[in-house]
Every structure is written in C-alpha cells, then in structure tokens.
Amino acid sequence: MNNKENLELKKEIKELESQKRKIKVLKALKNSAKIGHLIAPYAVSAGITFGIFSSLGMMPFTKNEHKKYLETMKEFDSYGNIRYEEQYDHFENVKNTITFYDNWKLVNGMYTRNIEIYDASKIDFLDIEEVVNNNNVKNVLGNPTSTKIEIKNNVDEDELKKGSYLKAQVYNQFLDNYITVEETFKESLNNTLNWLFINIAASILITLSSISNRIEKYQEETKEIEAFCPTNDLETKILTKKKCLNIRN
C-alpha cells in the first residue's frame, strides 16, 4: 500500500472521529436542554409564588415585619351612652351597623324583644349620628339586613324603663398611625408551609398536564438524533477503516 492511500485512509478516520466527538457534544447538549426544559416550569412556578408571597409580606423561610394600623370602634345609642375602643389590631366582624332594640314585653312569663340590624356601611359618620339622634333608621336605611328575637328570664328595672332605642357601631382604620411588629415563629412557619404546599400542588399539576407530551417529545428527539447522528454506523466505519489500515500496513 502506498503512502498516498495511507494518508487518505488516515484522513478519513480522523474526520470520522471528529464527527463522532461532535455527535457526543450534540447529544450532551440535547440532554442538558431536556433537563432544563424539565426543571424550568417548576423554577418559574416557585419564583412566581415566592414573589407573590414576598409582596404580601409573607416571604417564606424568614420572619417578616408587618404594619399594624390603629383601628377604633365607637358605639353610641339614642340615650347618649358612648363606648370607645382602639387597638393596633383587627376588630372582629368589622362593619358599620345601626341596631334597633324594641321595648321589652312579658310573654308567657318570659321577657322578649325584637332586634333589627341595619347595614350602615354606605353612609358616613355624621349621617349615622343623625339617624340615631332622630330615630329615623327606616327612612334612611330601609329594611333591616337581619332580625332576631331576644328572650330573657329576668330584665332589670332600668332596662324595662328604657323602651325602644337605636345603637350604632362605627369602625375606623388610620393608615397614618401604625406600629411595626415581627411575625411570630408560628406565623413564619405557617407562611413557609403554605408556600411549600402551593408549590407541591403546582408541581403535581404541571407534571400531570405535560408528562405525556414530554414522553412523546423525548421519543421524537431520540429518533431525530439517531437519524441525524448514527453513532453505531460511525463506530463501525471507524473500526473498518482502522482494520483496513492495519491490514495494508
């Protein structure tokens, strides 16, 4: 075998081996892309939920600081009695209301009276005061939102003498008056567990919705790689060329 043929054969082997290395790199990149494609939806989901929790002051894995605004509750009735409360926290069942208490009646040995509750959230404080002072709740607020009957065994003399009256409850929140407090360990743990639960649920939904598509895509990509990059054929060609070179030498 002459030198020219040997050089040509060696050149062919070198090109085949170069092509083989390129195919390995291509396959590695394809596998990396598949891993990235697999992880991406979960990373995006975790990032979005983390951002939402953080914007709400519920960042997981840390103790967040919260603003507690001053809230007040003023209660007053037709007789001029006033009760006032304030706190840096939420009152329960916050809703401006006017309640009508009818006079007590003795029925079958029991004291009963009708109570009507009106929603006063759509009128301002001065209007509420005017309604209570003038005893004209029906003219301003119309029908009550709820009614009930109160029954007692005994009622003191002062209550019996009162007769019917109105009582208002008015709530306010002051956004320019607040204190900053650090959440407790229990609150922090609860935020973290909620974040983890939401992400696990989202991951399950993502997996269920896309698992069949991923299997099909993986099968298609595998076929494409093998069609474009027949590694077994390359290996056979390289071995054949090397054997040929050895025989000729």
Q: Which assembly state applies to the chains in this document?
A: single chain
- Pattern of helices and strands: HEEEEEHHEHEHH
What are the low-pLDDT stretches, counting only 5+ consecutive residues below 50? none
Structural class: alpha+beta
Share of helical residues: 40-55%
Overall mean pLDDT:
75
Radius of gyration: 40 Å
Domain count: the total is 2
Approximate strand percentage? 15-25%
Number of strands: 7
Describe the 3D structure.
- The protein is an alpha+beta fold.
- α1 (3-55) runs antiparallel to α5 (185-228) and α1 (3-55) packs antiparallel against α6.
- 55% of the residues lie in helices and 25% in strands.
- It is built from six helices and seven strands.
- It has helices spanning 3-55, 125-134, 137-141, 157-162, 185-228, 231-248; strands spanning 65-77, 82-87, 97-101, 105-107, 110-119, 146-152, 165-182.
- The model has no long low-confidence stretch (mean pLDDT 75).
- A hairpin with a 2-residue loop joins β4 and β5 (110-119).
- The radius of gyration is 40 Å and the shape is rod-shaped.
- Strands 1, 2, 3, 4, 5, 6 and 7 form a seven-stranded antiparallel beta sheet that branches.
- It has two domains: 3-63 and 184-248; 65-182, no CATH class.
